[in-house]
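Z., the sequence and structure:
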Amino acid sequence: MMKIYTVSDIGSLARKKRMELGLTQSGLADISGSGTRFISDFENGKPTLQIEKVLNALHVLGLDIFISERGSGNGT
């Protein structure tokens, strides 16, 4: 598990996972029902992307997001 500080952190993790899976940006776009431009923007940390598309791309990559309150005993 990794603490996320920026949108770019999410994009970097997604890029790393995509490459581990041997997918191209185009391939991920096809599977997730988005466009290649969206995947590029996502991996580069564009802050104005649609959260639903981000969550869908993460789901396709097998990545989940967890949210917890700061100071809730989770090490943050």
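The CA atoms of residues 49 and 76 lie 26 Å apart. The domain at 7-61 is CATH 1.10.260.40 (434 Repressor (Amino-terminal Domain)).

Let me know what you think.
H.
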